Amino acid sequence: MMGHLRIVGDRRTDRLRLIRTRTGRALVVRCHQRLRGPYTGIDTVLRTVLSEAHRRWPELVEAHRVELLYGMPELAHLIGPPPRTLADDAPYEERTRYYGSGMIRCMSQGIVTFLLEYAARTHADSGAALELAFEEVHAAEATTQELLALLVRRADPDVLRVVVSGTGDALPEELEAALTATAATLPAPTADPGPEPLRSPLEWAAAYVDGDCTDDDPRALAGYRDADRQEVARLHDRRADSLEDTASWGLRMGAIAHHREHGTDPTGAGRAALLAAQRHAVATGFSSTVVDLGLRGRELSDPVTHEHDYWEFTREAAAACIPIGRLEESLELYQNLLRRFTNPKIHMMTSYAIAMLHTRFLQPRDHDLAVQWQHNAVAIAGLLPDPAERRTFSVFHDNGLALVEMHRGNRAHALELVESCIARLDKELNEDEWVLHRSQLLYNRARLLVSFGRLEEAYADYTRLIEMDPYYTDYLSERARISRERGDFDAALADYDRAVQLAPPFPELYYNRGTARVRAGDPDGALDDFAYVLAMEPADLESRVARAELLLETGDPDGAEADADTGLALHPGEVQLLCLKGIVHLQREDFEQALAAFDAVLERDPHYPAALINRAVVHFHRSRHSNAVADLTTALDVVGNDPDVLLNRGIAHLAQGRADLARSDFDVALTLPDADIEELHHHRELCDATTAPR
């Protein structure tokens, strides 16, 4: 069996030579982010395979249409356009819904699933593995590196073999771990480059620029460094001009932004190119690229003459720092704006952003401080001189205040604020104005209504939202949750099924559908959903526990134990998984190991009910009836009067010869909902028999 492969070397020519000798007919693609930004290289793979896939297996392409086109909209000419949401069609200045790294990861998971299925189908035809070689991975954008980590981990190399090629520079942790676990590493021998061509520094510089500044040949780098700077700037202009006519957004985020930034007009054309690229990256959710473009754009923007652009570069970079975990950097960028500017709108929007940091992201949360910052935003909004701006921003920031109040526990005030915002916009705007923001207000109201138990009203709001924005699947998932609360699992599953059809593979969505399928009596469907989540995200604890429990319930203790062991390797000492191992041992009547597992759980959490109840069963089987009673008594202190626990404690009391205590437990249990009446009466009769005169 050929496994995945990692090739390491300082020069691309050396690495490519080794790829050719170590692979069959591998598709070799370049991943350098300076070419086309996020998904560089992935786009080349998809352009190569999509025409055949669309022709032979249109249903496969259709199932992944959203993911395939999300970050690479230019592929629509091969397979047609994706469905549109309100956010897609909203003017940039009206965007109030943004996506981050979590959304992009789901898109990448969907692309990986497509490639795995495509490879499986071609393998079934030919018996040959699809080989994909990704070159310059050390210089790839973070989104590409994350996708490659997922692909390497999930792909069977007998069906889809992955070659990752680059310098020896450290890669992101997830990709390094995937390669360490699955790939052999080969160094690329350095070959003699041969006689040096007779080129002037400017000629070398021209070759370097025409290669979008990705060449690792030291002669090209030296020529670029030594050539006349004005001539080099003109080379950048020429290269950017040559790319403009057919430029995709990938080119605009990658090569074109770089060339304009280093051309003859960096603070004009360069700044404009970076701003346009950043706006696209913001709308798509390419967080790492947003930060990169924003920090570069700040360097080209004079805070006085380019105040708006400096602010926009900074605020978008600060916001994008959040989903990639750079929270302190985010706060510092916002504070930089407050120190630098006196513009009221900049202070208003920055105050809002800092409030959101404190109420949603920074640890520990500080909702009171968030209120102070958000009150500042609300106060400034109310003083804006333009009536339209004053109305719009007052509503926006009252909505922000509602979110903070909700986090503080002031749900009634939060609902009052949101409903006031909705009423004001409905009164003062036409139906087609600020539609996206109005949908967000309605969404916030629906969530608050759910928190008050006003499910009918919330359900109506979600239904209206689905009608307004039918391809935004969060609303389907939220409506499904209400249907579950009502016990209507058919309606819930209908919404989940529709969301699965339209959305990228959100693990939470598949987990929720899986748990609903369990309740609806479809264990096979539930196992399929949990399996998909765990294929994408093996460390997903909820899905790991849910599948192990379901395997146990459906008569597969070996599968349940394997899930528990896998989960414990990822989450050492996790009590739910330890308890499941104990239950598996208990079912096998391996009481020693069962007791050890339950003891381990209760060392970590002395009041974990399932471990107490099941350890009591072990004690009972070993005739330690007083220990069983003690564990069940502790469990009842935790869960309250539960008919099954009372039944079991009564049985343990009876085994101790305490028929009076047993009878008391059985009598209490008989008054409770869902009690096993027949079993309780049977054991109560045993109590009577033990105390009857002889």
Question: What this model shows, in words?
Answer:
There is one protein chain. With 694 residues, this protein is mainly α. The protein is 70% helix and 4% strand. It is built from 37 helices and five strands. Strands 2-3-4-1-5 form a five-stranded parallel β-sheet, sandwiched between helices. Helix 9 (142-154) links the parallel strand 3 (130-135) and strand 4. Helix 31 runs parallel beside helix 33 and helix 33 (609-621) packs antiparallel against helix 34. The protein starts with a strand and ends with a helix. 47% of the residues are buried.
Number of helices: 37
Distance between the termini: 77 Å
The count of strands amounts to 5
Based on Cα principal axes, name the global outline: globular
Summarize the biggest pleated sheet. 5 strands, parallel
Lateral strand order in the biggest sheet = 2-3-4-1-5
Q: What are the segments in which pLDDT stays under 50 over at least 5 consecutive residues?
A: none
Please estimate the helix content: over 70%
Residues in β-strands, percent: under 5%
Class inferred from helices and paired strands: mainly alpha
**Average pLDDT level:** 95
Nutshell version of this structure?
By secondary structure, the protein is mainly α.
Topology:
Blueprint: E1 4-8, H1 12-22, E2 27-30, H2 33-36, H3 42-56, H4 58-63, H5 65-70, H6 76-79, H7 86-89, H8 101-126, E3 130-135, H9 142-154, E4 160-166, H10 173-182, E5 183-187, H11 201-210, H12 218-226, H13 229-244, H14 249-261, H15 266-284, H16 287-299, H17 307-321, H18 327-340, H19 344-361, H20 367-381, H21 387-408, H22 411-428, H23 435-451, H24 455-468, H25 474-486, H26 489-502, H27 507-519, H28 523-536, H29 541-553, H30 557-570, H31 575-587, H32 591-604, H33 609-621, H34 625-639, H35 643-655, H36 659-670, H37 677-691
Parallel strand pairs: 1-4, 1-5, 2-3, 3-4
Helix pairs in contact: 8-9, 9-10, 11-12, 11-13, 13-14, 14-15, 15-16, 15-17, 16-17, 17-18, 18-19, 19-20, 19-21, 20-21, 21-22, 21-23, 22-23, 23-24, 24-25, 25-26, 26-27, 27-28, 28-29, 29-30, 29-31, 30-31, 31-32, 31-33, 32-33, 33-34, 34-35, 35-36, 35-37, 36-37
